[in-house]
Amino acid sequence: MKKSSHLLTLLLFVVSVAVGSAQKITGSWKGTLKVQGMEMPLVFNISEKDGAFSSTMDSPSQGATGIPMDTTTFTDNTLTIVFKKAGINYSAKLEGKEFKGTFKQGGMEIPLSLQKTEKTVPGNPALVSSEQDLNKLSALEKGTYKYSVEDYFANPKGSSFRFSPDGKYLSYKESDANGKQHVYVKNTQTGKAKRVIEQKEELIRGYGWLNSNRLFYTMDKGGNENYHIYAVNLDGSNNKDLTPFEGVRANFESLLREDKDHIIVQLNKNNPQIFEPYKLNVTTGEIKQLFVNKDASNPISGYQFDKDGNLRGYTKLKDGVNMEVYYEDGKGGYELWKQLNWKDSFGIISFNYATDYPHDAYVLSNLETDKAEILLYDLKKKKTIKKIFSNEKYDVGGLGLSKKNNYAIDYLSYEGEKNILIPVSKTYKKIDKAVKKQLPGMQYYVTGKTDDETKFMLYITSDKVYGIYYIYDLKKNELKEIYNTMPQLNPEDMAEMRPITFKSRDGLTIHGYITLPKAALNGEKVPVIVNPHGGPQGIRDSWGFNPESQLFASRGYATLQVNFRISGGYGRKFLESGFKEIGRKAMDDVEDGLKYVTEKGWVDANKAAIYGGSHGGYAVLRGLTKTPDLYACGVDYVGVSNLFTFMKTIPPYWKPYLKIIKEIWYDEDVAAEKAIMNEVSPVFHIDKIKKPLFVVQGANDPRVNIDESDQIVKGLRAKGVDVPYMVRYDEGHGFGKEENRIALYKSMMGFYAKHLKGKVQEPIKH
């Protein structure tokens, strides 16, 4: 099995085909590799231009499509594909309408035949609305507005500012005229900047500094979330894929500040369902596995490394729902230290490096209290040394340490109605004082600092300010603005985001937010867009600048965001009160929120839309079927429609947690819960949908398969309902590319204009 697993991880091709018979070989060719009882389909898509061939490869079982190839020749009726880095060689003769040949890799020789096929895309493209129809939908929004959709959703000209560890350089993303976000590095002394990472077709999902000479960045393929980690020198040289394994997801585990040449990553290269830790040389790409996740049926779900890269312990998922915590035994091994239920929270934030005793750690725990608290804990003696931080109303979780000052606590934080940072050290008290004096009413986040802790990067924001970067100079006690990410949006024109609190129909205290356009503040009842959040478990809506809510407000719509039961941050009891209540009491809370803001006189309940993504998309479909008369229309964005198929199409690395997912949602193996799943799966209640629906989906979504959207669209179309359906084939779980994002919101605003402004319209029949 090792050989076949190795084969799966190395299948990344690029084909460049020498001049041959274009008519014979252009198009798509499909074959299946059979290794030790395993089957892996492959599709090669060959095209010709100016006498030269090029090609891409799809590996459906790995969720990979459009992978560019390496070298290929087609001579004397023989096709030869070579991928040197993976040690792959495929050679085949064209016999009639079939390539017959041998696939070679790592000493293996496997027969592989390819037959001509039609290139397919995920889902049913026949259901997808044409660009012409979507443009017509966008055009339904009439009127002149001060700010365009682009003003809210185009990529910021500059963003993601970072210090190099030595403070000599400043890195940032900068958008070009086509919306591509490249990474630049600027010398802080000379002011000279150089582009070191170029964004091409795939998005740069994240980046940062590895050391003072080298940066990393992450990318996937079309939103499939199989991230690769790349590294590049600050001058743009030695750009290297550090995790060149196709169909494998790389998770960044930790930097090693004492070891500038290595990082720790987690990869699911040996088994797609589980992750194992590796030490990775950021210059050469040399990789070394640090620990083996042996038991796939009871996998390790998390590793605990210290600042020097030593594995101090790990957490194992046992029987799908329990947790076993292992800690070093002092003999080079690990012993069972604590047994927990998956609902328990006990995690190490950081070891306490301020003492020579190696077993003190700051932990986040809810074992003794409903609200998560920070404790200083002796891991060897298994006892609390002292309570560091807690809050009566909210979970806490933020803690910052100062390496320069012997790892003393810099700050503590939690999220209530707003994000609250409590300065502890003299340094952070100075930062806090400077911000409050110069920028009253603003929230701030320290996004980075130099190794000598004399310069700090701050991100300043509020409900009306998208985000401005500042540098705080400790020596000068100076706070200086360096970049306004969205200068075109005047805060005076933005809408207020107001925290709200109300009681649910069964007596729970529910929190949320209402963003009100100026007309509502002047006493006018306005249309409202109810916006349930994704997740749903442990996720919550937060106070701050929300471009969606601001766009909606600019068009005269209020936005309601409810942190319904199962949302995070409000304690364990509130979180767990939503288990087995998704689509039921969780939806009741959303409905009760709408009732509350209606009774306040802010909104017109007869003009209420429901819109959301992921679980929020599910909530849209559930809302239109559970309470068919409550909403005027809905927008379902990458939402679940069928709980049965949803659980069968989750990513492989979610499968070890399927029992937990079933404890949060529902278990079809329990008769009563299967009945509930039928009740709350919108696809089985399409006949109840009476109001207009707009569906949006990323074709490569690994979390909510495109089949979830196809099912609801197909079902409604069968009943003669016209459902606009937007699909983007280069996106996954949400739209990351600027052009797709802008197209989405333009169509959405046209949809709202049609169904919220003026008389509410019924769905259009064919």
UniProtKB/TrEMBL annotation:
Top-level taxonomy:
Bacteria, Pseudomonadati, Bacteroidota, Flavobacteriia, Flavobacteriales
Query: Looking at the record's lineage, which domain of life comes first?
Result: Bacteria
Question: Which is one GO molecular function term here?
Answer: serine-type endopeptidase activity
The record's keywords, sorted A to Z, are: Hydrolase, Signal
What residue stretch is flagged as signal peptide? 1-21
Q: What protein does this entry describe?
A: Probable S9 family peptidase
Biological process annotations from GO = proteolysis
- Residue ranges of domain Peptidase S9 prolyl oligopeptidase catalytic in the record: 543-758
